[in-house]
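Running this now, will post back.
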Amino acid sequence: MSLLSAYAVTLPIGGVRRPWLAVLAALMGFVTTAAVSQRAEAQSGASSIREFVASKDKWPQLVGRPLKLEGRYTVLSKTELRFAGCSVRFLLPQRFRKPRGDSRNLEVSGQLKRQAGQLVFVVRKVIPQPSDMDELDRRRVAIDTGKPDELYELGHWARDRGTFYDDQQLLRAANRLLENGVARAFGLLDSDDAEGMRLLAAKAAEFGFSGRLQREYLHEANRAAFETERKRKQPDIETVLNNIRRELPGSGTPLPTEQQSLRKDYLEAPRAIYRVADDATRRLLDRIFFAEVVLADIERNAADDGRNGYQIAARIEKQLPERHDLAEAYRDRELNDLAGRIAQLTRGQVLDLAGKYVEREQPERAEDVKRRWLQARARLAQAEGPRELMELGEEYLNLLNDEQGAARMFQRAYDANPQLTTASAWLAEHGYELQDGRWDLPGGARKHERDDLTEAIHEGLVLKGMTGSQVRAALGGAPSTVVRMATAGRISEIWLYEELRISVQLTRGSTQTSLNVRRVTNAP
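Update: finished.
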């Protein structure tokens, strides 16, 4: 019978009822000091010594009332026992026999009385009780371990008793129950329930567990939030980052160079790696996770073709200085994109691109992009006329200091219009002499016509008289469109290279076996 029920059965009825209700209300503090333990003890009807001691200020009001208490004794003689943690003497009845077995738990029934100005408990009946560990095993079997609340309740019972009796074995068992309860509660959460995971982290802190378990659930919560946000069209990444900064202490420290290999392991299995990592490693993983979220935010704005690689690289180096390697990769992507679109670039863009290669200590690539740009311009210049070819010749000198390349352009300008004195004057000024319609350096071996064609093909130029196969070699493949015509024994084809904006007219007479270039013009 609990202390509350003991009072309830002794309350008189009739006119004196109300004063006793006041006493009953005053006693509620005693019987409700530990609600969880109270529910547990209700099975036997006895209050625990821990509860009894916690309500010491109510003892005078309990004198003479039937009470039932249970607890762990420290002293037991033929006439008296003492419960651990309690100063009251418990006087045993005559003919009392010490219980058998190893358990030191007893339940006693009796009354508080005053003797020589002191309170004593006169025991009427003693009932042996199982040890706390045996009782814990019995209660564990009786609960549904799939329900976190039942694990919490039993864990609190064991913790209260273990704390009161300084029983380390019982405290360890209590902690296991509470941890199992939290783990079970986590297993019942939806994978995207970030707030539920945060509540479990708070519960782990409330239970006094080490920061490891709390930090594990905070990591789970932040990963769940990140994975939810990254699926949205307009993700709120900033809120995720703020939570990571606040809850995962290692997130603000850049990852040391020698720890870069840890990133791959974490990104392959983040939850599993974090769960088993020690505290020092977790600080590194916090940063890797933080960097993952930052990159997800930055890379949402990265162009698929890499054309804004330098902009992305600048953001990476500002926010994640340890990811210089990734920033460089994005710069390479933009440079590769520009190099792949070399024919579309302006002169200023080509010079900027070449300058970036020089900054990256790649001078050979700087020269290559300028040469390829000139070659791409040569196709257009040839179609536009001799003046454009001469301008391109000057660019060979300005950009590459390549006099030989410039001479080829002025030679082609002369071929297109031998009456244009500007081309002749430039060639003569640079030491070339006209021999049989060709400008060559004095004493130099005359180039064979086949050498001229090979050079033109290498430069991506189409010359009059080239065969169809030579045109394809010079322009990098078949035309996008072919138009065929046949008139008066002559077959003509117009090959349109839309991307290069070049139109090539080829003809074949009735006695010829192959098509040959007649004219090259710019396509609209």
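Confidence is low (pLDDT under 50) at residues 1-43. More later if anyone needs it.
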